[in-house]
């Protein structure tokens, strides 16, 4: 009878875990450090990339492994705390662990550590029943560790995404405000933007009041077009910086696709700049066009800011006035040959060729020739209603500028 009682006492099961003895749990606690060290040794032997890590980085992995082993023993004492303990194992890791060890590599580390556990734990069991319990426990705990690793990396990805979003907003805001080139380019480089890429700024209304939804819409369309973008939601205004050329039919198609990511109302595209360092000029022209486009209800969508020069000039934009003078008035004055006088007379008589010829005392063919020269020099056809408006406003702006001694 005493022998039976003595044998029962030797195999007394722990009150913490009904299937493991207190003696086995104590063995596990004493062996935890050795199992962690054995896991690191196996990682160094099997993973070439792990051997290339610095001593500090390997010690960070060792810390996570030690916490994981300690968590395993604590979990055996209280299986209800599995998620909390495994999450704490990764929470105690160095903050930059996710930067130099990818999620795929972390899965490899967990796999090797679990293999070491499976090899060493059965030797600590008192009998076959405990060995079965420990084997099952390793498998279950490995699953919890894997989920904890995935959760940790997901949290890191969300934090990085939030940081990137804030940095992107700072870059776009800097472009709109015309910040110093150095700070702008350094922030954009951190987002992976090619500083030498051409940049075009588009402005308009967002599709909704939810910024993440707006950003998703813009990014999805930019991805389909194969173009990098920088996005800024500034209250009721959406600003998009589009990389790459937008000239020609293909470029116009890209602008049209991007315009569908904006909400109702006009979308204005500034001029294409040679690099991000000059993007503030595109932003200034685009915003000026957005303020003035209300004067042209039939404006296309999107509309280039250069097509809104008359409205911008009427709204008091000095840059639009300068572009009209430099792009229309100066070429006509420098060309001579009464081109300025001819286009002025043609517009005054309502575009009637014969009336213009009579007013100038020249043959109608002379007027035709001069108007063709005007189109060649300015890109504007006086017979087109929209171009006629641009020419008329340009001539008026040119006279005002000359009266003020600006040219």
Automatic annotation (TrEMBL):
Keywords on record: DNA-binding
GO molecular function ontology, one term from the record: DNA binding
Pfam family, one: HTH_30
Gene3D superfamilies: PucR C-terminal helix-turn-helix domain
Domain of life: Bacteria
Region (Disordered): 1-23
Amino acid composition bias (Basic and acidic residues), ranges on this chain: 10-23
Record flagged with keyword DNA-binding: yes
Family classification: Belongs to the CdaR family.
Protein name per Swiss-Prot or TrEMBL: DNA-binding transcriptional regulator, PucR family
Gene source species: Streptoalloteichus tenebrarius (strain ATCC 17920 / DSM 40477 / JCM 4838 / CBS 697.72 / NBRC 16177 / NCIMB 11028 / NRRL B-12390 / A12253. 1 / ISP 5477)
